[in-house]
Task: structure prediction
Amino acid sequence: MPRPVRVRFAPSPTGLLHVGSAHTALFNWLFARRTGGAFLLRIEDTDVERSRQEWVDAALDVLTWLGLHWDEDIVSQSRRVAFYQQRAEELVRAGKAYYCYCTPEELEARKQEAIQQGRTWQYDRRCAHLSETERQRYEEQGTPRVIRLSVPPGKTRFTDSILGDIEVGNSTIGDFVLVRSDGWPLYHLAVVVDDIAMEISHVIRGMDHVSNTPKHIQLFQAFGYELPEFAHLPNILGPDKKKLSKRHGAVSVSEYRDAGYLPDGIVNFLALLGWSTGDDREFFTRAELMALFSLEQVNKRDTVFDLQKLHWLNGQHINTLSAGELFPLVTPFFIRDGLIDEAGLAAQRARILQVIELLKERCRTLVDFATQGRFFFVDQVDYNPKAVEKHWKDGERVAERMQWLRDRFASASEFSAEHLEAITRDVADAHGLKAAELIHPTRVALTGEMIGPSLFELIVLLGKETTLARLDRACAALGETVRVGK
Ligand code: GLU
Result:
């Protein structure tokens, strides 16, 4: 009977959750959801120097935000130290591990000797062969001791679900330390003891752990526990093909959250780092990923973090949401940028929904709504110098044309997009102009920018009063430029 699927995500809380860790979390989560298994969370905080509760809290916050909800209680390794010690002692009693009394100085001296003789150094198993009397003498002297695993000669083999068959000689593993002389468990011991206790069926983690796996297998075997399946996920590289790091820009998930990316956009993007359905398909909803994901389709080749793709995918996900769904996601960014306050949001909800609807197609991030929609909220727009340069060159003439349009808008019988467009085309025809010659300068006057959503629709949303006031201000500004120019 196949084992029930139980996977775990085991972050070390030494910093903000890295996108690489989120990638590992996601692949575990998708695998669990696809197979109906359990997705467990374990905090690997035995490195007390580097671990901090605030990083644990931040990781839980980000996982929750990403929608990667875990099953069962969280396991925290720092609370289980006695358990790891107890399990290591069991191995000693079973003859699978032993106490080692070699001091760091002795070890260093023997290591240097080995290096000088051109040998690679592994612990030389001196304490594996201590007689009972020797051992007792050390104990009586109170010599500090560590616990080492007794790794048998031979080879360690396993079949990684992604990498295929892997084999290493046990001489390269060495009798590694399980428990330090101060009683503190080492990483490998804690991982394997917990994987056993949590009945983990599949260990899915980053490629950087593949070299640890033979050690873990030795420990699983020493405990007499059936091996889990192993799957090591591909490395994530920056565009320069070097391991993704801060040099490449934002690497923590929370930075992407703050930059206005959606959980579904990030999930979709991370899923494509090393996984595909075998065709060119890139857009996937969460439900589709949960239905389609499989470890067999994970590629072992390094994968490149392509920010452009994240940006594009995020825009696609934004586009699937209605203005009503976007409202609670976008408005915190309006507030963050000081465009509006809570009271304003409540009072202007209907208008803001229209603003969101109008901008939606053009926005790739939630922040874009605040930057591209800024002109809807401010009293006075700032004119982008590039837009001025391009569309307000001939100030006098532009002001004259804008004035024609302003007067027609002022007397418009109805303030609808269709009607305003008809008026604009009519003015253009009457003066032998192309409509664009009116539209572009007017956009600069109303938004400060040279690109943006449909001019006539945005005019309707700005309302007649604001539109006329901005056209007046633009005409005045153009007049001034002309005067200064003269
Ligand atoms: N705590 C390790 C890390 O954050 C993961 C260990 C594991 O998955 O076995 O890289």
